[in-house]
């Protein structure tokens, strides 16, 4: 087994590992595994964005969904809406509170999670996978620098609980 190289493309890290196995006779087999790790960034209002090329997938953090309680309504931005970073772009309502959604990045909305509009409880059961809210095509990648990494966000949560 040998590793070819570790490449970093923006916020996406690809690792290609080659396995070379010799079998009886002159036959040789090569298998390739590719691993992609996407980095999630957070705002101080508890939204997150995960960047894949120029598309940012946006949702709310586990902390936010726990604070809201059972989400019963989700109003998401319309497709093709142009958003600026920190723009109010939707709302979530739960049995005990309502909360505005703010865009963590600037861009054009390319997709919204209609499953969340139909079944808002997806936000509570799977806020990072099935409960994402909308996707934008980023217009300013430099805005990511002002957001928190997961470790920074965890520290932010600890400092705000005291």
Description:
The chain is of the alpha+beta class and 162 residues long. The chain folds into two domains: 2-36, no CATH class; 40-141, RNA polymerase II/Efflux pump adaptor protein, barrel-sandwich hybrid domain (OB fold (Dihydrolipoamide Acetyltransferase, E2P), Beta Barrel), CATH 2.40.50. Helices cover 17% and strands 46% of the residues. It is built from four helices and twelve strands, in the order ββββββαβββββααβα. The strands form three sheets. A six-stranded antiparallel sheet has the order 4-5-6-12-11-8. β2 and β3 form a beta hairpin. Residues 1-24 and 31-35 have low confidence and may be disordered. This is Glycine cleavage system h protein.
The rounded distance between the terminal residues' Cα atoms is 49 Å
Give Rg in angstroms.
Answer: 20 Å
Query: CATH class of the largest domain, anyone?
Result: Mainly Beta
**CATH superfamily caption of the largest domain:** RNA polymerase II/Efflux pump adaptor protein, barrel-sandwich hybrid domain
Architecture of the largest domain in CATH?
Answer: Beta Barrel
Helix content: 10-25%
**Overall outline:** globular
Question: How many DSSP E strands?
Answer: 12
Q: Can you tell me the number of structural domains?
A: 2
Helical/strand content category: alpha+beta
SSE blueprint and pairings:
Blueprint: E1 2-9, E2 12-22, E3 28-38, E4 40-42, E5 47-52, E6 55-60, H1 62-68, E7 71-75, E8 82-83, E9 88-94, E10 98-102, E11 107-112, H2 114-118, H3 122-125, E12 134-138, H4 150-161
Antiparallel strand pairs: 1-2, 2-3, 4-5, 5-6, 6-12, 7-9, 8-11, 9-10, 11-12
Organism: Holotrichia oblita
Protein name: Glycine cleavage system h protein
């Amino acid at each position: 087994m040998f590793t070819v190289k570790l490449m970093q493309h923006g916020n996406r890290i690809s690792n290609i590992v080659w396995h070379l196995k010799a079998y009886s006779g002159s036959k040789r087999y090569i298998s390739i595994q590719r691993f992609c790790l996407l980095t999630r960034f957070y705002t101080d209002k508890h939204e997150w964005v995960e960047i894949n090329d120029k598309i940012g997938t946006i949702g709310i953090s586990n902390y936010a969904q726990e604070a809201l309680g059972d989400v019963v309504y989700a109003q998401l931005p319309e497709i093709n809406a142009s958003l600026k970073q920190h723009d109010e772009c939707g709302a979530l309502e739960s049995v005990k509170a309502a909360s505005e959604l703010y865009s963590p990045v600037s861009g054009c909305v390319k997709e919204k999670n209609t499953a969340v509009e139909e079944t808002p409880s997806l936000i509570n059961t799977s806020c990072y996978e099935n409960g994402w809210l909308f996707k934008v095509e980023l217009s300013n990648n430099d805005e990511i620098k002002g957001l928190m990494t997961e470790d920074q966000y965890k520290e932010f949560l600890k400092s705000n609980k005291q």
